[in-house]
């Protein structure tokens, strides 16, 4: 298979999910999974890329066909030894194989790797499929199914794989199994194993794919909120319902997974990380320096406050991680956590206020994005965001029974930490948007203004 790796490397470098942008992939095949149907060989390559400072393991399923597949022309990887290589999520033979392996508890074998399906319900038989556009870190396949409880499912293929649990699988499956409809229903997962010389037993085990309910006609909350803000629509009712939905998910997570007390050492570690992020951001965003003392004072107050217990949380909650459906209201998705945090950290208990802070920042971003082209009154947009934030907090407290005002000092620290991180992101990627998080920093360090 050595002739395949160079072809895959050229193709991978152009994909949105490839992490080492601008670098040429340095690939080593650590394992393969084989399968397929008559006339189509499917090989899933587990490729260790050593181009970046930290090696990353990618999952790349490839369909080998003797004849071109016209409907998947855009997914053509290249030609090797007279075979056409396609990005397999675009090939119906692979989609059928993957769905059957998961739903039937099947097993895939190959060179130095294996994978096993773990069904939680029968999704039905694949009829047709298409790859969901717009994804950046994974690949999701929408599959029309026959004979299942829902007309469509979505198969999420994890491009970056690692040893241990993927919280997007573990948390969403746990919430679904508890009977909650605040997340899409889970149908099963595919777990793989592959060589890892860095582990004591030399083997890594992790999630490769998951199947869940697809919600046709749903719309992400960011678009719903943006449209409401642009038109001046009162969003407070929906914002309160969203607060209730988030509180319900937190309640379910606390029931299904262990909770642990937050110790003084935990608080010290969390605040130290906040200060570390501030130091990093201030090096690139000099405007933060004028608030340096006030920010540090917010963090210092948080170290002396009482923190709630730690539990499993979403970890990267914002309006883009929520769907609106007419039948079920708000549904929360994508539990992988903050992309820049190591996966081992994302799988630990955390403070639920982190999710609350993330959502509060998202309301600010709706208002701030409207002002980018100068077509909206900034004061009106700001008032809209403030009303949405207040309604979200009210809804969260109503469902959870927690008075967030009693944790205001800690919540302010989490929200400020998030805004500081946003200044660094915007400075690097969207300088014109830098004013949005900087305005939040100024507001949050002003006493009684958060």
UniProtKB/TrEMBL annotation:
Gene Ontology BP term (one): glycogen biosynthetic process
Source superkingdom: Bacteria
Keywords recorded for this protein, A-Z: ATP-binding, Carbohydrate metabolism, Glycogen biosynthesis, Glycogen metabolism, Kinase, Nucleotide-binding, Transferase
GO molecular function, one term: kinase activity
Pfam family name, one: APH
Gene3D superfamilies (alphabetical): 3.90.1200.10
Pathway the protein contributes to: Glycan biosynthesis; glycogen biosynthesis
Start and end residues of each Maltokinase N-terminal cap domain: 11-91
The keyword Ion transport appears for this protein: no
Residue ranges occupied by any Aminoglycoside phosphotransferase domain in the UniProt entry: 134-364
Primary enzyme class: transferase
KW Transferase (keyword) present: yes
Residues covered by region (Disordered): 110-131
Transmembrane segments: none
Catalytic activity: D-maltose + ATP = alpha-maltose 1-phosphate + ADP + H(+)
EC number: 2.7.1.175
Family classification: Belongs to the aminoglycoside phosphotransferase family.
Assembly information from the UniProt record: Monomer.
Name of protein: Maltokinase
Top-level taxonomy: Bacteria, Bacillati, Actinomycetota, Actinomycetes, Micrococcales
């Amino acid at each position: 298979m050595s002739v395949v790796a160079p072809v895959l490397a050229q193709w991978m470098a152009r994909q949105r999910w490839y992490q080492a942008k601008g670098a040429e992939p340095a690939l080593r095949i650590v394992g393969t999974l084989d399968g397929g149907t008559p006339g189509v060989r499917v090989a899933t390559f587990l490729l260790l890329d050593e181009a970046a400072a930290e090696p990353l393991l990618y999952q790349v399923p490839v369909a080998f066909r003797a004849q071109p597949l016209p409907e998947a022309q855009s997914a053509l990887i290249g030609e090797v030894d007279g075979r056409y290589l396609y990005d397999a999520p675009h090939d119906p033979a692979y989609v059928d194989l993957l769905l059957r392996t998961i739903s039937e508890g099947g097993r895939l074998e190959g060179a130095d790797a294996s994978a096993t399906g773990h069904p939680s319900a029968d999704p039905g038989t694949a009829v047709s499929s298409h790859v969901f556009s717009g994804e950046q870190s994974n690949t999701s396949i929408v599959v029309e199914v026959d004979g299942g409880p829902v007309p469509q499912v979505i198969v999420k293929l994890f491009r970056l794989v690692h040893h241990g649990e993927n919280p997007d699988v573990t948390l969403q499956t746990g919430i679904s199994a508890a009977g909650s409809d605040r997340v899409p229903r889970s149908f099963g997962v595919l777990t793989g194993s592959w060589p890892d010389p860095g582990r004591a037993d030399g083997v890594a085990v992790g999630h490769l794919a998951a199947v869940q309910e697809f919600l046709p006609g749903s719309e992400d909350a960011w678009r719903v909120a943006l449209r409401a803000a642009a038109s001046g629509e009162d969003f407070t009712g929906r914002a309160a319902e969203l607060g209730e939905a988030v509180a319900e998910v937190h309640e379910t997570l606390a029931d299904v997974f262990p909770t642990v007390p937050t110790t003084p050492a935990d608080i010290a570690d969390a605040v130290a990380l906040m200060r570390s992020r501030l130091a990093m951001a201030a090096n690139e965003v000099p405007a933060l320096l004028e608030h340096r003392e006030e920010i540090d004072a917010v963090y210092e107050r948080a170290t002396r406050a009482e923190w709630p217990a730690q539990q499993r949380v979403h970890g990267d909650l914002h309006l883009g991680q929520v769907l609106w459906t007419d039948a079920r209201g708000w549904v929360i998705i994508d539990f992988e956590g903050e992309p820049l945090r190591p996966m081992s950290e994302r799988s630990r208990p955390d403070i639920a206020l982190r999710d609350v802070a993330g959502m509060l920042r998202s309301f600010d971003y709706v208002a701030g994005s409207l002002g980018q082209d100068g077509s909206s009154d900034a004061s009106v947009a700001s008032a809209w965001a403030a009303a949405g934030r207040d309604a979200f907090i009210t809804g969260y407290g109503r469902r959870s029974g927690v008075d967030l005002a009693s944790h205001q000092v800690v919540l302010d620290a989490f929200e400020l930490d998030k805004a500081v991180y946003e200044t660094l992101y915007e400075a690097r990627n969207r300088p014109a948007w830098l004013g949005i998080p900087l305005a939040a920093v100024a507001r949050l360090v002003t006493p009684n203004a958060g």
